[in-house]
């Protein structure tokens, strides 16, 4: 498991103008840390360090050791604001992690055994993903970096639902607690559209021959 750490400085110069100056003059990213029994704290992070951490998928669902002026806190990345046209991070939100208190986090899905999927190998089907991540609830110590979706035994026209996912111990999907209507599809194996299209001209030819 990868360990993530970030360095930050507390900031008192607030407002949109101050944030623009941070990004432009110091190559820093304005951010906020909130949650727990402490007041929200405005901080600034080095843009280069944050961008490098964001290159790793696990960073988005991992407990991060954040050092603010030398004082360390465990946090989770909760929100990220990017510039709509430029590769610039505008703002970041971090949630304090409190030991013994459950957290709700979006965790990426890793689809495995797609090459050996029975619906693909035997029936020529195609796999479609309807989700790339799932919201889970757990204690910080049980937080998984990802959840695997095993496609090996999925047949043609079969759907993998949220309830089919094998979750690590201590991890739950809060959406499922809302009832059967919330057991959403994660992936499915369907017939290839190319094959369906190839059948159409043949059918038309038969009709014209008649």
TrEMBL record:
Domain Large ribosomal subunit protein bL25 L25: 6-94
Record-level GO BP terms: translation
Keywords, alphabetical: Ribonucleoprotein, Ribosomal protein, RNA-binding, rRNA-binding
Annotated ranges, domain Large ribosomal subunit protein bL25 beta: 102-193
InterPro entries, sorted: Rbsml_bL25/Gln-tRNA_synth_N, Ribosomal_bL25/Gln-tRNA_synth, Ribosomal_bL25_b-dom, Ribosomal_bL25_C, Ribosomal_bL25_long, Ribosomal_bL25_short, Ribosomal_L25_dom, Ribosomal_uL5_bac-type
An annotated GO cellular component: cytosolic large ribosomal subunit
Pfam families hit by this protein: Ribosomal_L25p, Ribosomal_TL5_C
Molecular function in Gene Ontology: 5S rRNA binding; structural constituent of ribosome
Domain of life according to the entry: Bacteria
Recorded coiled-coil stretches: none
Family the UniProt entry places it in: Belongs to the bacterial ribosomal protein bL25 family. CTC subfamily.
Quaternary structure annotation from Swiss-Prot or TrEMBL: Part of the 50S ribosomal subunit; part of the 5S rRNA/L5/L18/L25 subcomplex. Contacts the 5S rRNA. Binds to the 5S rRNA independently of L5 and L18.
Purpose: This is one of the proteins that binds to the 5S RNA in the ribosome where it forms part of the central protuberance.
Name assigned to this protein: Large ribosomal subunit protein bL25
